[in-house]
Design goal:
Pfam families: Rhodanese. This is Sulfurtransferase. InterPro entries: GlpE_sulfurtransferase, Rhodanese-like_dom, Rhodanese-like_dom_sf. One of its GO terms (molecular function) is transferase activity. The chain is an alpha/beta fold and 108 residues long. The chain has one domain: Rhodanese-like domain (Oxidized Rhodanese, domain 1, 3-Layer(aba) Sandwich). It contains three helices and five strands, in the order ββαββαβα. Strands 1-5-4-2-3 form a five-stranded parallel β-sheet, covered by helices on one side. The radius of gyration is 13 Å and the shape is globular.
């Protein structure tokens, strides 16, 4: 099964889709896409009811965990797409991020 993927350049601003961040809590706190839903990859099966409605962009640090999440969620019938390059490429492209700490957002 191929993983539906989009490059940073193909993601419009503002985002027309919901965002699911599957990184760990410390990564999320350091910096994430504003408005994203945070569910760590290992918790995803137990928290499916918290997923946003409609098409969802799934992100992690570099794209590996989010690809796993996209594969799993697509098998469950969700409309999902993986962000190629993850949050590292997002930050490198100068796309906006927020942190939970009040400090400047960064990718951990």
């Amino acid at each position: 099964m191929s993983i539906p993927t989009v490059e940073i350049a193909g993601v419009p601003d503002p985002l027309p889709v919901a965002v699911l961040d599957v990184r760990e809590a410390d990564e999320w706190a350091a910096g994430h896409i504003e408005g994203a839903t945070h569910i760590p990859l290992q918790e995803l099966p137990a928290r499916l009811g918290e997923l946003p409605e409609g098409q969802t962009l799934v992100v992690c640090k570099v794209g590996g965990r989010s690809a796993q999440a996209v594969n799993y969620l697509a098998q469950q019938g969700y409309e999902v797409v993986n962000l190629a390059g993850g949050m590292l490429d997002w930050a490198a492209a100068g796309r906006p991020m927020v942190s939970e700490t009040g400090a400047e957002a960064y990718v951990l």
